[in-house]
Please model this.
Amino acid sequence: MQFIDLQSQYHRIKDDVDRRIHAVLDHGQYVMGPEIDELEKRLADYAGIEHCVALSSGTDALLVAMMALDIGPGDEVITTPFTFIATGEMIMLLGATPVFADIDPRTYNLDPASAEAAITARTKAIVPVSLYGQCADMDAFNAVGERHGVPVIEDAAQSFGATYQGRRSCGLSRLSATSFFPAKPLGCYGDGGAAFTDDADLALRMRELRNHGQDRRYHHPRIGINGRLDTMQAAVLLAKLDIFDDEVAARGRLGARYTELLGDAVRTPYLAEGNTSVYAQYTVEVDDRDGVRASLEAAGVPTAVHYPVPLNRQPALRVDADVPVAEAAAGRVMSLPMHPYLSEDDQDRVVAALRAAVGA
Model:
């Protein structure tokens, strides 16, 4: 059994993927080819937002979004400690200080009240992460941002395709960033990402920043990065977009089925009212996580832990933070196999092995 099955997806769309890749090989525009513009338009339409800027990774999408806001030394950025390091890493890379607020114990997303309590005169942005495939409480964060004059950036690396109060992730705040890492709900065949905004000036800044800060050839009004998405990856994403809605629906069905079958045995994901999830991970809480994982491994069921060490305890980011909910969750969470091609038979095997492991 595979934790994530990318091969089945490829076999489903092989002809379209191959056709689009060969089109790139034929025209030879491997950097900023026509597929980039096509992809950006389709992604912006999907998210319900004006501007999409394709980038070389989700990490670079976060970086460029923060650079567009001129975040730098002396600034503070409030975010969650319960996420992948890229979120805090990009804040540090710009010379700013990550300020870690605590998480909601039900959704594992950043708690708006905890984030608001952390605002100071130096706060330059709030970056909630839409973890495990469910959007953070973006209306609450936008309200906090408006009260304090602080922009909100949704880190949507795991939630592209999810909805919040009828709107899609990446269309919920002033800026957002997502990832197309292969294991994401919408993934390419390497690294890739995108940033989104309704603000034309910010979109222009991000387009310049991803291309060495140039506004025209050999004219650089700002310092940027080499953050362009490869044309080949855009071609792959265009093929995958054609089946994305179907895959999102399958993820929703499988997630609901896991919850139905496991709800009396372990703590299953909480889906906030008005939300859908793309279940980038299906994550449960268990006692004796190491023992449970060992039992599942012996039964042939792969698992993963996202994330065992909060960012405030990472050696490169070590920051004093009062985040007891995040630290408790980090010791208990465990993710189960989840992808759109997971069969019910395999899902039943996972459920049976987990119930046996926890004695349920």
Observations:
- The radius of gyration is 20 Å.
- The chain has two domains: 6-238, 243-358.
- The mean pLDDT is 98.
